[in-house]
Fold Carbohydrate ABC transporter ATP-binding protein, CUT1 family.
Amino acid sequence: MTPQIEISHVEKHYGAFHALKDIDLTIPKGSFVALVGPSGCGKSTLLRSIAGLESITSGDLRIAGERMNEMPPRKRDVAMVFQSYALYPHMNVLGNLTYSLRFKGVAKADAREKANRVASTIGLEKLLDRYPRELSGGQRQRVAMGRAIIREPKAFLFDEPLSNLDAALRVHMRMEVRALHDRLGATSVYVTHDQIEAMTMADHVVVMRDGRIEQQGSPLTLYDTPANRFVAGFIGSPAMNFVDGHGSEDGHSVRLDALPGAPVLPLDRRVEPGRPVVAGLRPEHLFSGGETQFSVPIRVVESTGSIAYYTTDTDPELMLVEQGRGKLRSGDSAALSIAPGDIHLFDPMTGLAL
Ligand code: ATP
Protein backbone atom coordinates (compact mmCIF):
# COMPACT_ATOMS: atom_id res chain seq x y z
CA MET A 1 0.00 0.00 0.00
CA THR A 2 1.30 3.49 -0.83
CA PRO A 3 2.26 5.40 2.27
CA GLN A 4 0.18 8.55 2.48
CA ILE A 5 2.15 9.99 5.39
CA GLU A 6 5.76 9.10 6.13
CA ILE A 7 7.47 10.39 9.23
CA SER A 8 11.13 9.52 9.63
CA HIS A 9 13.47 10.34 12.50
CA VAL A 10 11.39 13.36 13.46
CA GLU A 11 12.60 15.42 16.42
CA LYS A 12 10.93 18.46 17.94
CA HIS A 13 12.45 20.80 20.50
CA TYR A 14 10.56 23.65 22.13
CA GLY A 15 13.61 25.56 23.33
CA ALA A 16 15.28 23.24 25.83
CA PHE A 17 12.27 20.89 25.96
CA HIS A 18 12.54 17.76 23.83
CA ALA A 19 8.92 17.08 22.79
CA LEU A 20 9.36 14.49 20.00
CA LYS A 21 12.17 11.93 20.01
CA ASP A 22 13.12 9.99 16.89
CA ILE A 23 9.59 9.44 15.64
CA ASP A 24 9.21 6.92 12.82
CA LEU A 25 5.73 6.28 11.52
CA THR A 26 4.41 5.19 8.14
CA ILE A 27 0.72 5.67 7.50
CA PRO A 28 -0.64 3.77 4.49
CA LYS A 29 -3.29 5.34 2.30
CA GLY A 30 -6.76 4.48 3.58
CA SER A 31 -5.69 3.57 7.11
CA PHE A 32 -6.97 4.90 10.40
CA VAL A 33 -4.14 5.52 12.85
CA ALA A 34 -4.64 6.53 16.48
CA LEU A 35 -1.98 8.35 18.51
CA VAL A 36 -2.56 7.61 22.15
CA GLY A 37 -0.74 8.26 25.39
CA PRO A 38 -0.94 10.17 28.66
CA SER A 39 -1.19 13.94 28.84
CA GLY A 40 1.96 15.68 27.66
CA CYS A 41 3.37 12.67 25.76
CA GLY A 42 3.58 14.65 22.51
CA LYS A 43 0.65 13.31 20.51
CA SER A 44 -0.80 16.75 19.70
CA THR A 45 2.66 18.02 18.83
CA LEU A 46 3.07 15.16 16.37
CA LEU A 47 -0.34 15.79 14.82
CA ARG A 48 0.29 19.52 14.59
CA SER A 49 3.65 18.83 12.98
CA ILE A 50 1.91 16.81 10.27
CA ALA A 51 -0.52 19.69 9.76
CA GLY A 52 2.33 22.20 9.61
CA LEU A 53 1.09 24.10 12.67
CA GLU A 54 4.41 23.24 14.35
CA SER A 55 7.74 23.10 12.60
CA ILE A 56 9.90 20.03 13.17
CA THR A 57 13.46 20.45 14.39
CA SER A 58 14.89 17.62 12.28
CA GLY A 59 13.84 14.53 10.38
CA ASP A 60 11.57 14.17 7.40
CA LEU A 61 7.87 14.44 6.84
CA ARG A 62 6.25 13.39 3.57
CA ILE A 63 2.64 13.53 2.49
CA ALA A 64 1.71 11.61 -0.69
CA GLY A 65 5.42 11.29 -1.45
CA GLU A 66 6.16 15.00 -1.25
CA ARG A 67 8.53 16.43 1.37
CA MET A 68 6.58 18.79 3.62
CA ASN A 69 9.16 19.98 6.16
CA GLU A 70 8.95 23.63 5.16
CA MET A 71 5.55 23.60 3.46
CA PRO A 72 3.03 26.06 4.97
CA PRO A 73 -0.11 24.43 6.46
CA ARG A 74 -2.54 25.54 3.77
CA LYS A 75 -0.45 23.92 1.05
CA ARG A 76 -0.26 20.53 2.77
CA ASP A 77 -3.77 19.57 1.74
CA VAL A 78 -4.70 18.06 5.09
CA ALA A 79 -7.74 18.92 7.21
CA MET A 80 -7.76 19.24 11.00
CA VAL A 81 -10.85 18.47 13.10
CA PHE A 82 -10.70 19.79 16.67
CA GLN A 83 -12.72 19.17 19.82
CA SER A 84 -13.65 22.84 19.93
CA TYR A 85 -15.24 22.51 16.46
CA ALA A 86 -13.86 25.92 15.45
CA LEU A 87 -17.06 26.77 13.55
CA TYR A 88 -17.75 30.33 12.41
CA PRO A 89 -20.54 31.43 14.78
CA HIS A 90 -21.91 34.11 12.46
CA MET A 91 -22.36 31.68 9.54
CA ASN A 92 -25.00 29.02 9.17
CA VAL A 93 -24.12 25.40 8.42
CA LEU A 94 -24.11 25.99 4.67
CA GLY A 95 -21.78 28.96 5.10
CA ASN A 96 -19.49 26.97 7.36
CA LEU A 97 -19.36 24.09 4.88
CA THR A 98 -18.69 26.21 1.81
CA TYR A 99 -16.32 28.76 3.36
CA SER A 100 -13.08 27.04 2.33
CA LEU A 101 -14.34 26.51 -1.24
CA ARG A 102 -15.52 30.09 -1.60
CA PHE A 103 -12.16 31.20 -0.23
CA LYS A 104 -10.47 29.13 -2.96
CA GLY A 105 -12.61 30.85 -5.60
CA VAL A 106 -15.04 27.99 -6.33
CA ALA A 107 -18.27 29.38 -7.87
CA LYS A 108 -21.19 29.76 -5.49
CA ALA A 109 -23.44 27.23 -7.26
CA ASP A 110 -20.68 24.60 -7.40
CA ALA A 111 -19.84 25.13 -3.74
CA ARG A 112 -23.49 24.80 -2.84
CA GLU A 113 -23.87 21.57 -4.79
CA LYS A 114 -20.82 20.11 -3.10
CA ALA A 115 -22.11 21.21 0.32
CA ASN A 116 -25.41 19.44 -0.38
CA ARG A 117 -23.57 16.27 -1.24
CA VAL A 118 -21.41 16.42 1.89
CA ALA A 119 -24.43 17.32 4.02
CA SER A 120 -26.27 14.23 2.86
CA THR A 121 -23.18 12.06 3.47
CA ILE A 122 -23.13 13.09 7.11
CA GLY A 123 -26.83 13.65 7.75
CA LEU A 124 -26.93 17.44 7.89
CA GLU A 125 -29.32 18.09 4.97
CA LYS A 126 -32.04 19.49 7.19
CA LEU A 127 -29.73 21.72 9.20
CA LEU A 128 -28.09 23.81 6.48
CA ASP A 129 -29.86 27.02 7.59
CA ARG A 130 -29.06 26.65 11.28
CA TYR A 131 -26.36 28.59 13.11
CA PRO A 132 -23.80 26.79 15.31
CA ARG A 133 -25.53 27.98 18.51
CA GLU A 134 -28.71 26.22 17.31
CA LEU A 135 -26.97 22.83 17.02
CA SER A 136 -26.26 20.07 19.54
CA GLY A 137 -22.69 19.08 20.33
CA GLY A 138 -22.90 16.04 18.07
CA GLN A 139 -24.34 18.10 15.20
CA ARG A 140 -21.59 20.70 15.58
CA GLN A 141 -19.01 17.96 15.49
CA ARG A 142 -20.60 16.71 12.28
CA VAL A 143 -20.42 20.18 10.72
CA ALA A 144 -16.75 20.36 11.69
CA MET A 145 -16.21 17.05 9.92
CA GLY A 146 -18.26 18.17 6.94
CA ARG A 147 -16.06 21.19 6.64
CA ALA A 148 -13.01 18.94 6.49
CA ILE A 149 -14.61 16.48 4.04
CA ILE A 150 -15.63 19.14 1.55
CA ARG A 151 -11.99 20.01 0.96
CA GLU A 152 -11.21 16.43 -0.12
CA PRO A 153 -7.91 16.50 1.77
CA LYS A 154 -5.10 13.96 1.48
CA ALA A 155 -5.54 13.19 5.19
CA PHE A 156 -7.85 13.97 8.08
CA LEU A 157 -6.15 14.94 11.31
CA PHE A 158 -8.35 14.64 14.39
CA ASP A 159 -7.32 16.24 17.68
CA GLU A 160 -9.47 14.69 20.42
CA PRO A 161 -12.60 15.57 18.43
CA LEU A 162 -15.05 13.80 20.72
CA SER A 163 -13.83 14.81 24.15
CA ASN A 164 -16.48 17.53 24.59
CA LEU A 165 -19.36 15.13 24.04
CA ASP A 166 -21.18 13.15 26.71
CA ALA A 167 -20.33 9.46 27.10
CA ALA A 168 -23.23 7.99 25.08
CA LEU A 169 -22.81 10.41 22.19
CA ARG A 170 -19.07 9.80 22.19
CA VAL A 171 -19.61 6.07 21.71
CA HIS A 172 -22.05 6.78 18.87
CA MET A 173 -19.83 9.37 17.19
CA ARG A 174 -16.82 7.11 17.29
CA MET A 175 -18.69 4.64 15.11
CA GLU A 176 -19.84 7.47 12.85
CA VAL A 177 -16.34 8.82 12.39
CA ARG A 178 -14.98 5.38 11.58
CA ALA A 179 -17.85 4.61 9.15
CA LEU A 180 -17.30 7.94 7.44
CA HIS A 181 -13.60 7.23 7.13
CA ASP A 182 -14.40 3.90 5.44
CA ARG A 183 -17.02 5.42 3.16
CA LEU A 184 -14.67 8.15 1.98
CA GLY A 185 -11.67 5.85 1.68
CA ALA A 186 -9.89 8.51 3.76
CA THR A 187 -6.54 8.45 5.53
CA SER A 188 -7.01 9.50 9.15
CA VAL A 189 -4.74 10.27 12.07
CA TYR A 190 -6.61 10.51 15.33
CA VAL A 191 -5.24 11.83 18.63
CA THR A 192 -6.87 10.68 21.84
CA HIS A 193 -5.88 10.00 25.43
CA ASP A 194 -8.66 7.40 25.58
CA GLN A 195 -7.23 3.98 24.83
CA ILE A 196 -10.69 2.50 24.28
CA GLU A 197 -11.38 5.07 21.57
CA ALA A 198 -8.03 4.24 19.99
CA MET A 199 -8.57 0.47 20.21
CA THR A 200 -12.11 0.53 18.80
CA MET A 201 -11.57 3.01 15.98
CA ALA A 202 -8.08 2.47 14.62
CA ASP A 203 -6.39 -0.12 12.41
CA HIS A 204 -3.05 0.87 13.85
CA VAL A 205 -2.42 2.26 17.32
CA VAL A 206 0.68 4.25 18.25
CA VAL A 207 1.37 4.41 22.00
CA MET A 208 3.50 7.40 23.02
CA ARG A 209 5.23 8.40 26.25
CA ASP A 210 7.58 11.30 26.95
CA GLY A 211 7.91 12.19 23.26
CA ARG A 212 8.74 8.66 22.16
CA ILE A 213 6.80 5.88 20.46
CA GLU A 214 6.70 3.04 22.97
CA GLN A 215 5.03 0.59 20.60
CA GLN A 216 2.84 0.59 17.52
CA GLY A 217 0.71 -2.12 15.96
CA SER A 218 -2.82 -3.39 15.53
CA PRO A 219 -5.05 -2.99 18.60
CA LEU A 220 -4.99 -6.71 19.37
CA THR A 221 -1.23 -6.98 18.89
CA LEU A 222 -0.79 -4.32 21.56
CA TYR A 223 -3.25 -6.08 23.84
CA ASP A 224 -1.79 -9.57 23.34
CA THR A 225 1.90 -8.77 23.15
CA PRO A 226 2.71 -5.46 24.82
CA ALA A 227 6.40 -4.69 24.39
CA ASN A 228 6.81 -3.33 27.89
CA ARG A 229 5.10 -2.70 31.17
CA PHE A 230 4.01 0.81 30.22
CA VAL A 231 2.09 -0.34 27.12
CA ALA A 232 0.73 -3.33 29.06
CA GLY A 233 -0.67 -1.02 31.73
CA PHE A 234 -1.96 1.55 29.28
CA ILE A 235 -3.81 -0.77 26.88
CA GLY A 236 -6.71 -2.73 28.34
CA SER A 237 -9.46 -1.78 30.75
CA PRO A 238 -9.47 -2.18 33.68
CA ALA A 239 -5.68 -1.96 33.65
CA MET A 240 -3.41 -4.98 33.92
CA ASN A 241 -2.37 -6.04 37.46
CA PHE A 242 1.36 -6.19 38.19
CA VAL A 243 2.74 -8.51 40.85
CA ASP A 244 6.37 -9.08 41.85
CA GLY A 245 7.70 -12.61 41.69
CA HIS A 246 10.53 -14.77 40.44
CA GLY A 247 11.21 -17.74 38.17
CA SER A 248 10.67 -21.10 39.91
CA GLU A 249 13.48 -23.64 40.34
CA ASP A 250 12.70 -25.54 37.16
CA GLY A 251 12.03 -22.32 35.21
CA HIS A 252 8.64 -23.54 34.00
CA SER A 253 6.57 -21.46 36.37
CA VAL A 254 6.53 -18.17 38.20
CA ARG A 255 6.19 -17.74 41.95
CA LEU A 256 4.17 -14.68 42.91
CA ASP A 257 5.93 -13.73 46.13
CA ALA A 258 3.73 -10.69 46.72
CA LEU A 259 0.43 -12.61 46.94
CA PRO A 260 -0.92 -14.62 49.93
CA GLY A 261 0.64 -18.11 49.96
CA ALA A 262 3.11 -17.13 47.20
CA PRO A 263 1.28 -19.13 44.51
CA VAL A 264 3.25 -20.84 41.77
CA LEU A 265 1.70 -20.47 38.30
CA PRO A 266 2.77 -22.61 35.33
CA LEU A 267 4.07 -20.79 32.26
CA ASP A 268 4.00 -21.73 28.59
CA ARG A 269 7.68 -20.69 28.25
CA ARG A 270 10.83 -20.89 30.29
CA VAL A 271 12.09 -18.21 32.62
CA GLU A 272 15.51 -18.21 34.25
CA PRO A 273 15.21 -19.94 37.69
CA GLY A 274 15.29 -17.42 40.52
CA ARG A 275 15.15 -14.45 38.18
CA PRO A 276 13.10 -11.55 39.59
CA VAL A 277 10.14 -10.72 37.35
CA VAL A 278 7.01 -8.63 37.35
CA ALA A 279 4.02 -10.73 36.35
CA GLY A 280 1.24 -9.00 34.40
CA LEU A 281 -2.21 -10.47 34.98
CA ARG A 282 -5.16 -8.92 33.16
CA PRO A 283 -8.30 -8.60 35.33
CA GLU A 284 -10.39 -10.39 32.71
CA HIS A 285 -8.04 -13.42 32.70
CA LEU A 286 -8.08 -14.25 36.40
CA PHE A 287 -11.32 -16.25 36.47
CA SER A 288 -10.23 -18.65 33.75
CA GLY A 289 -12.50 -21.44 35.01
CA GLY A 290 -9.51 -23.76 35.48
CA GLU A 291 -8.61 -25.51 38.73
CA THR A 292 -8.10 -22.96 41.51
CA GLN A 293 -4.47 -21.88 41.71
CA PHE A 294 -4.77 -19.31 44.46
CA SER A 295 -7.34 -17.47 46.54
CA VAL A 296 -7.49 -13.83 47.48
CA PRO A 297 -9.84 -11.93 49.83
CA ILE A 298 -12.21 -9.40 48.23
CA ARG A 299 -12.36 -5.93 49.73
CA VAL A 300 -14.53 -3.86 47.35
CA VAL A 301 -17.30 -4.94 44.97
CA GLU A 302 -18.60 -2.62 42.25
CA SER A 303 -21.30 -3.98 39.97
CA THR A 304 -22.93 -2.39 36.95
CA GLY A 305 -25.34 -5.29 36.54
CA SER A 306 -23.63 -6.56 33.42
CA ILE A 307 -20.16 -6.69 34.91
CA ALA A 308 -18.73 -6.88 38.43
CA TYR A 309 -15.42 -5.30 39.44
CA TYR A 310 -13.62 -6.61 42.51
CA THR A 311 -10.72 -5.04 44.35
CA THR A 312 -8.78 -7.53 46.46
CA ASP A 313 -7.54 -7.03 50.00
CA THR A 314 -3.93 -7.78 49.09
CA ASP A 315 -0.77 -5.75 48.65
CA PRO A 316 -0.56 -5.01 45.77
CA GLU A 317 -4.31 -4.79 45.24
CA LEU A 318 -5.62 -6.79 42.32
CA MET A 319 -8.50 -5.76 40.11
CA LEU A 320 -10.73 -8.63 38.96
CA VAL A 321 -13.71 -8.60 36.63
CA GLU A 322 -16.55 -11.03 36.25
CA GLN A 323 -19.33 -10.99 33.67
CA GLY A 324 -22.83 -10.68 35.07
CA ARG A 325 -23.97 -9.28 38.43
CA GLY A 326 -21.09 -10.82 40.35
CA LYS A 327 -21.36 -13.62 42.88
CA LEU A 328 -18.83 -12.41 45.42
CA ARG A 329 -19.27 -10.02 48.32
CA SER A 330 -16.82 -7.99 50.36
CA GLY A 331 -14.97 -10.38 52.72
CA ASP A 332 -15.46 -13.40 50.42
CA SER A 333 -12.51 -15.21 48.98
CA ALA A 334 -12.09 -15.29 45.19
CA ALA A 335 -10.79 -18.56 43.74
CA LEU A 336 -8.56 -17.66 40.83
CA SER A 337 -6.73 -19.35 38.02
CA ILE A 338 -5.06 -18.07 34.87
CA ALA A 339 -4.08 -19.83 31.66
CA PRO A 340 -0.28 -20.09 31.20
CA GLY A 341 -0.50 -18.19 27.89
CA ASP A 342 -2.22 -15.25 29.57
CA ILE A 343 0.62 -14.53 32.00
CA HIS A 344 2.82 -11.62 30.92
CA LEU A 345 6.30 -11.22 32.36
CA PHE A 346 8.40 -8.07 32.53
CA ASP A 347 11.89 -7.26 33.65
CA PRO A 348 11.59 -5.35 36.96
CA MET A 349 14.41 -2.95 36.01
CA THR A 350 13.83 -2.19 32.32
CA GLY A 351 10.10 -2.94 32.18
CA LEU A 352 10.65 -4.82 28.92
CA ALA A 353 8.51 -7.87 28.16
CA LEU A 354 10.32 -11.18 28.70
P1 ATP B 1 -2.57 16.38 26.04
O1 ATP B 1 -3.26 15.06 26.00
O2 ATP B 1 -2.49 16.95 27.43
O3 ATP B 1 -3.05 17.36 25.03
P2 ATP B 1 -0.26 15.79 24.38
O4 ATP B 1 0.26 14.41 24.41
O5 ATP B 1 -1.08 16.18 23.22
O6 ATP B 1 -1.01 16.08 25.73
P3 ATP B 1 1.48 17.93 23.59
O7 ATP B 1 0.47 19.00 23.55
O8 ATP B 1 1.96 17.38 22.32
O9 ATP B 1 0.99 16.74 24.54
O10 ATP B 1 2.73 18.45 24.43
C1 ATP B 1 3.89 17.67 24.61
C2 ATP B 1 4.82 18.38 25.55
O11 ATP B 1 5.34 19.56 24.91
C3 ATP B 1 4.17 18.86 26.83
O12 ATP B 1 5.04 18.59 27.91
C4 ATP B 1 3.98 20.34 26.63
O13 ATP B 1 4.07 21.04 27.85
C5 ATP B 1 5.13 20.69 25.70
N1 ATP B 1 4.78 21.82 24.81
C6 ATP B 1 3.76 21.87 23.93
N2 ATP B 1 3.74 23.04 23.27
C7 ATP B 1 4.77 23.77 23.74
C8 ATP B 1 5.32 25.06 23.45
N3 ATP B 1 4.79 25.86 22.54
N4 ATP B 1 6.41 25.45 24.15
C9 ATP B 1 6.99 24.64 25.08
N5 ATP B 1 6.53 23.41 25.38
C10 ATP B 1 5.46 22.97 24.73
User: Anything to note?
Assistant: The helical segments are 43-51, 93-103, 108-121, 137-149, 167-184, 195-201, 219-224, 229-234. The chain has a mean pLDDT of 92. The chain has two domains: 3-234, 241-346.
